[in-house]
Every structure is written in structure tokens, then in C-alpha cells.
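(thale cress) hypothetical protein: structure, please.
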Amino acid sequence: MSLDFGFILITIFTAIVSFSTLSHALLHPSSQPASSVSHNVSRSRYYMTTNEIWFNQTLDHDSPNDHRKFRQRHYEFMDYFRSPDGPMFMIICGEGPCSGIANDYINESLNKKLNISSGGSDNPWFFFGISYSGALSAWFRLKFPHLTCGSLASSAVVRAIYEFSEFDQQLDVDADFLYLTADAAVMAFQYGNPDKLCVPLVEAKKNGSDLVVTYSTYVREYCMRIWGLRVRTYNRKHLRNTVVTADSAYRLWWFQACTELGYFQVAPKYDSVRSHQINTTFHLDLCKSLFGKDVYPKVDATNLYYGGDRLAATKIIFTNGSEDPWRHASKQNSTHEMPSYIIKCRNCGHGSDIRGCPQSPMVIEGKSNNCSLPDYVNKVRQQMVEHIDLWLSECRQSIRSSI
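Here you go.
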């Protein structure tokens, strides 16, 4: 029994797409050169589609009296969808802008089918997301289990944290800088490239070279040139700007942090790469400066509402890279209904199960052969496919029995 099916891809701006299956893609990613795509790539040939579709979205779904709308963007890829009953995969993009539906390992999945019988009139839905959108994927399954067959929550930050000192405890370097420079240091670990930071610093120390000069070269050549890190996005005057630009995502993320999620990346008590001036007071002052004096991160309320890393849900796959500092905000203990996998390798970072590693430059095809232990990454991907296959099959049977 086999089925050609579609998936629906949704972002913060929404994207809808259809395709055949994840299984081949997860286990046999694209063979394009690892250096072919950078983090800032926007060339259309790296996407299944970049055609924008807009619709009028309700601003507040919880208010019966608020009828305001806003224009929301989404993308559709229906080439491999088998009408009328193919499963729909919805992929939620992160807190930054999306340029289209990436031509990643998912596209390769079109060559192989999941073992799902046809029949029934409704389309089963499966949700995907990485990082904050991974949390959204898990929370959607938690709140609307009757609308989904399951979710993949990759590096999902489901636990709101007021003082997130664990974020910097992935590191051990010989310098202690301010917020931007500390974020730059963590970036190497988060995206699976510790050698980009550690090797030059170790060599500089051995040779008696200036560590600050070495570090500044790393920030300029790696963080700014490859990852597009901008100094102005750490500037309060810039963050106060409410005019919608390409940088607006930074202000929007700070609003999420200042009101609901926290994630205040304060300096750990010992062995910190973050200045001790970057403390709770610094973050609260920043929130007040940007959004007013009454803004405060209600992390306890967020965790009470969603459950934090103890959410009472079913059929959610959690995955985290062992080198990813954000894994401390995710669900790391595994249960039968919510399996959790830690992808253990030296350069397995944020979303390595989907993005591959290392992620410098970004390889949106999701290659795993650049991971220090590619077999381990592929094993986790195989387990992901098996869960998705099973849950979609169960979902299909449930749909048939209700007809």
C-alpha cells in the first residue's frame, strides 16, 4: 500500500505546500555541494516555490468582538499531492522572514512513499517546526489533537525560562564580552561549528597572539559575513523603531521574550563568556525601554498554560542536537507518546535532524554526511520516519472508521 501525498507548510507568515513523503528525504538528502548555499541565500533555484500567496487572517481568534484582519503570507507546493485524501504537512517557519519553501531533504522524499492506505475523505495533517516554531508545532498538537495526526518539534523551546543562564554553559572560552559578542560565541555551537571559534582561539593562545583580535576576526568573518549578524539589531534605538522592515523580526522576538517567554540570557555565576553586566536588570530595563514600564515576562503563566517540558500531549517527536544550547529549554526526556532524541555528535546543533550539520554556510538540503557522526543522525531520522509513518497510518484508520 502506498500513497503519493502532499504536505502543507506554514510559517509565522504561513506557508502551505504538498509533497509525497519524508522518508527518502530524511535518509537520503540532496547530493548538492555543501558549500553551495549560504545562510542568506535567496536564489529561487534553492526553493520548491517562492510564489507568495496572501489571505486575510483574523487578528485575534479568541475574541468574539474583535473582527480585525491582517494580510498573512503563505506558500503552496502541490505538485506531488494526490487528491483528494493525501496527507498535508504544515511546516511553520521561525521568528524570522521566510523566502519560500526550501528545496531541502523534504523534496527528495518525493521518490519514496510512506506505507499508508488510501481511502477516506479528510486530509490528515502533520505539523513541523524548528526552534520557536518547533514549540508552536508542539503547542498546536497539544491544544488541537483532533486536528492533527502528530508533530515534529525540532529543537523546540517549549519551556519558558526567566533567567536562562544555561544558555552559555555550552561554552568554555577565555574571554568575557558583552551581549553581542557573547551571542556571537554561542552561535558557533548553536549551528554546529565549534571549530570556527575554538580552533583560532586555541591557536592564538598557543602563539601568544591577541585573543581579542582573533575573536573580532571570527565575529566579522563568520557571524557577520556568513550569518548576517548586524550590530544595529542590538541597539535599543534601532529596536524601538516600529516601522516594518527586514529587521522587524528582532523587535517582535523581544516582545515575545519580554511578555511571555523570558529566555533572558544572563551570565552564569562561573566560567561566563557573557558580561555580568548582562543580568536580569539589564533585560528588564531593555523591555521597559522598548515596550513600556508594565511589560514583564510571565513565564510561569506560559508554562502553566502549555505545560513547559512536561506538556500533557501525545504523538509529538522532540529532537535536539547535543551541542545546541537551546536544548535546555526543550523536552529531553522520552516517553512512549512523546519520544525525544538527543542527536549526539560534536557538531550537532540547532535543528540538525532537519538542517544537517554543520550549518556554515547554511546547507538547506539538510546533508548529514558533514556531521561528525552521520550514522547517528540518520538513525534518528529513521526513527522519526517510523513514528510519522505509524501515526499517519493510525490517523487514516481513525478517519475511515468515522465515515
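Notes: The chain has two domains: 23-158+307-402, 161-299.
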